[in-house]
Write a structure and sequence with these properties.
heterodimer; A: 253 residues; Cytochrome Bc1 Complex, Chain C; B: 174 residues; alpha+beta; Rieske Iron-sulfur Protein; 4 helices; 10 strands; binds protoporphyrin IX containing FE; binds FE2/S2 (inorganic) cluster; Di-haem_cyt_TM (chain A); transmembrane (chain A)
């Protein structure tokens, strides 16, 4: 057994992929982090407090974990779901009643979505309570606010996709709030003066029409499955990178 | 001659600087142009929404003093015939955040299911978060004597006002 393992890890193929051996030295451990495209975002060394559950609650980590779950289950859902007025609702029903493990899949996606909103807020709360938003970490707080908004938008766009009464009216109500945005909303301050109407304001661009309809469903789908996740991934990469660059997880004040 | 060239060199860019500025200028104007095009792209030019003008039957189909909700699902409106026989068309789009208010014949009110706003049979808000009365749409008749609604002409409900008084043109006398 040992020999086989040794043989494999000494082949040129293996060594071309994994540059460091497993010898457990501090230097090697740091190199393993630095030499890995995914792990290099992570600090090579962290303070003792950084791994303490009582300090971080691991809430940022859990939020990221939920994001991964949502990505995987979301891609699976896409194999059965069609974002059209005629199909969307019935595809959800098919997922629940005819697709193997479809009900489980749909529920994992839904619960993880709800949970992510909760954990991101707890993460924000913990960062606030530990004072970790203070210099040099101010910018990571700003990135965090962007991530919070993106998470809420993911929640919001996903809400319309089942195309049921709940989602339909929630999106009607939610996008009507955009009407009241200054200048770019037709009922907001200055809107009427510069000539914004139901047919050229922010809400119109979001819905692709003057009411929630086929275009709105398709737009919500594309933003939910492609647009916002890509933007969120970029922000998350920078967020993690900044944790490292700002000196790792914050220590006691 | 030499003097002129020397002072020209001070004003003019070198070939290198000129090309660098030209290159960056091109890239930046391309990016700005693409950004504008992308924003415009999100505003569709052709919509497949229900038409703004549609007929709603003949005046005889409506009884005096009744609110007719048969066009609620298709067009989100009610046609109201008052006791004096005149008509108006009320929009069911709740003035709070846009759900469809339902006509409740037993209570004689419009009731929005989303956050509970209530409007009387004239469309005037009296309970819940709705900030103003329901809007009205223009009602007219076709040469064939049918009633026709024009949703592109909106008589906007104004807080504390009776639309009968401020928009006499919203009432159709037959
Ligand atoms: C998609 C959402 C987010 C993800 C996946 C995420 C992930 C993470 C992770 C993994 C950490 C390392 C420490 C920990 O686990 O607590 C972290 C740290 C941090 N996060 Fe977030 N985060 C998110 C949103 C936010 C929000 C909403 C804020 C605040 C507005 C924020 C501000 C910060 C700050 C300032 C740090 C550094 C904390 C320290 O060094 O102690 N993040 N984040
Ligand atoms: S949308 Fe009607 S009460 Fe809120």
């Amino acid at each position: 057994m040992r020999n086989i393992f040794k043989y494999i890890t000494e082949t040129q193929l293996w060594k071309s992929i994994f540059r460091h051996d497993y010898e457990d030295t501090p230097r090697n451990r740091a190199l393993q982090i630095l030499g890995n495209v995914f792990l290099h975002l992570h600090p090579a060394r962290i303070t003792r407090l950084g791994v303490k559950l009582k300090h971080t609650w691991c809430m940022g980590g859990i939020t990221f974990f939920l994001f991964i779950i949502l990505t995987v289950t979301g891609v699976l859902l896409m194999f059965y779901y069609r974002p059209t007025v005629a199909d969307a609702y019935w595809d959800m029903k098919d997922l629940e009643f005819t697709v193997r493990f479809g009900l489980l899949l749909r529920n994992i996606h839904r619960w993880a979505g709800h949970l992510m909103v909760i954990t991101i807020m707890l993460h924000m709360f913990r960062v606030f309570m530990t004072g970790s938003y203070k210099p040099p970490r101010e910018f990571n707080w700003v990135l965090g606010v962007v991530l919070l908004v993106l998470t809420l938008l993911l929640s919001f766009t996903g809400y319309l996709l089942p195309w049921d009464q709940l989602g339909f009216w929630a999106i009607t109500v939610g996008t009507n709030m955009a009407r009241a945005a200054p200048v770019i909303g037709h009922e907001g301050p200055l809107g009427e003066i510069i000539g914004t109407t139901v047919y050229n304001d922010l809400r119109f661009a979001l819905l692709g029409g003057s009411q929630v309809g086929a275009n709105a469903l398709l737009r919500a789908y594309v933003w939910h499955c492609i647009g916002i996740p890509i933007i969120a991934i970029v922000f998350m990469a920078v967020h993690f990178w900044r944790v490292r660059k700002d000196g790792g997880i914050s220590g006691p004040l | 001659m030499k003097g002129i060239f020397e002072s020209l060199e001070e004003i003019l860019l070198s070939r290198r600087d000129f090309l660098v500025k030209l290159g960056w200028g091109g890239i930046i104007s391309f990016l700005i142009g693409s950004a504008i095009a992308t924003v415009k792209f999100f505003f569709p030019r052709v919509l497949f929404e229900s038409p703004a003008r549609f007929t709603v039957g003949k005046p005889e189909d409506y009884s005096f003093g009744k609110v007719n909700a048969s066009y609620k699902d298709s067009h989100r409106i009610c046609v109201v015939r008052k006791e004096d026989g005149s008509f108006f068309c009320v929009s069911l789009i709740c003035t709070h955040l846009g759900c469809t208010a339902n006509w409740k014949p037993s209570e004689g009110i419009f009731h929005c299911p989303c956050h509970g706003s209530k409007f009387d049979r004239m469309g005037i808000n009296f309970a819940g978060p709705a900030p103003r009365p329901l809007d009205r749409f223009k009602l007219d008749h076709t040469p064939e004597g049918e009633l026709i609604v024009d949703k592109s002409v909106i008589y906007k409900g104004i807080f504390g006002m009776n639309s009968d008084v401020i928009y006499p043109q919203s009432l159709l006398k037959v």
